[in-house]
Write the C-alpha cells for this entry.
Amino acid sequence: MTTSDASPTSAFADEQLMIDHVNTNHDDSLLLLARVLGDRRTATAARVVGVDGEGFDLVVTVDGAQHAARVAFAEAAADLAQVSTQARALVQRARALSGEEGETSIERDISRMRSIRTFITSVSAVEDVHPHLRKITFAGGDLATFEPLGPDTFLYVLLPPSGRTELPFDQSFSWDEWQQTPEDERATGAYYTLRAWRPDVAELDMLFVLHDPSGPASEWAARAQPGDPVGLWGPREAFEPPADTNELVLVADDTGLPAVAAIVEWAPTYWRVHVVAEVDSPAEQQPIPHRDGVKVQWVHRNGRAAGVDATPMLDALRSIALTNDRVYVWGAGESRAMTAVRTYARRELGLPRERVSLVAYWRHATSTLDDDLD
Ligand SMILES: Cc1cc2nc3c(=O)[nH]c(=O)nc-3n(C[C@H](O)[C@H](O)[C@H](O)COP(=O)(O)OP(=O)(O)OC[C@H]3O[C@@H](n4cnc5c(N)ncnc54)[C@H](O)[C@@H]3O)c2cc1C
C-alpha cells in the first residue's frame, strides 16, 4: 500500500503525481466512472487529463474514438486530500448506480483502508533530542499485537480534540465516522514514522518535529507526558524499490529523516546509499547509521524557513555520482520541494516512474490546491 490513498491527508506532492498515479494504477476504476457517471456505457478505456476542486476531466475511448467527459464531485474539494476522498466517493456512487457486481482497484483500496487497525496505547517516555525535535515512546495497550511493515512504516497518530485529554474513539475508529463527527469533537493528529520498534517490550519510538507555525500534532508533541493516551492508525508503508535495485538516493528534510535512518539500517550492505539530508543547522542533524557505501550530505537552512527553497537540496542531489541505472530515489519532505526533486529525478536523471518515490510529508502554508492545479 502507498501513501497515495491516505486519509485524511493525501500524500500526493502535486496534481500531476495524482493524475499519473490514478492513470497507472486505477484504469479499471476510471473506466467504471466513465461508463456509469460519464454516460459512456460502451467505453473500453478512460484516463484522467485534468483535475480541479469540482471534478475530473477524462478522455474516454468508445469504439476506438476518443471523447472528452467530465465527472463532477458530490462536494467541492479544497485540497488534494479532499480530491482523494471525493474520488473514492465517486467510484462508490458509480458502483451503486451500475447495479453491477465486481470490485475495481479503488474499491479494493477502500476495503484495505477499512481493514487497517487502530491501536490504543499511551506515551511512556519523552526525550528532547534538540529544541525542535522530540522523541516520544509509546508502550502498553494494544501494542502487544503490533507488527511493523517496511523500513518507512508510518502510522497516523490520533489525538484528543483540541482542549481535551480523552480520546473520542476506540479500536473501532474509522475515517468514515470521523468525517461525520463535528469538527470540535473529532480526533486531531498527523502521520508519523516508526523510528524504532522493540517487540520484546512492545514499545515504539517516533520523532516529532516541533515546527513553527505549529499544528495540533506538533503542539500535542511539545506538551506530551507519560500516560497521555493516543490511537495509532496503521501501519502503512510507501518505500517500494524495484527488485533489481542496488543503489539508493534518499532525500529528506527533518520530517523524513526518521524514515531515512530506518531505511539505511535496513538496506542490504552491498547497496550504495546516497543521503541528502536538510535540517536547520549542524546542531539539528539526526543520527544516520554509518557504514561503508553510505554517503551523507547535510544541507543547512541556517535560519531560513523550512520548505521554501529546494535549490540547496537539488544542488546536493546534482553532485551525486551514480554508479549505474539500478537506482531508486526515495524522498520525503515539503510538498513543493518533493515536486522539484521528482522533476529532477524523472527529467534530469531520466529515471522511470517505478524508480522514483517522493512523498509529500507536509505542505507549506503558502502551498494551496490552486498552486498545485496551476
Ligand atoms: C507518511 C508520513 C510520515 C511522516 N513522518 C513524520 C515524522 O516521523 N516526524 C515528523 O515530525 N513529521 C512526520 N510527518 C509530517 C507530519 O505529519 C506533518 O508535519 C504534519 O503536518 C504535522 O501536523 P501538525 O498538526 O503539527 O501541523 P498541521 O496542522 O498539518 O500544519 C500547521 C502548520 O504547520 C506547518 N508545518 C507542518 N509541518 C511542518 C514542518 N515539518 N516544518 C515547518 N512547518 C510545518 C504547515 O505548513 C501549517 O502552516 C510525516 C508525514 C507523512 C505523510
Remarks:
- The chain has three domains: 3-113, 117-236, 247-373.
- The pocket of flavin-adenine dinucleotide is lined by residues 3, 11, 154, 190-193, 206-209, 211, 213-218, 255, 258, 306-307, 361-365 (CB under 6 Å).
- The mean pLDDT is 91.
- Residues 117-236 form a domain with the Elongation Factor Tu (Ef-tu); domain 3 fold (CATH 2.40.30.10).
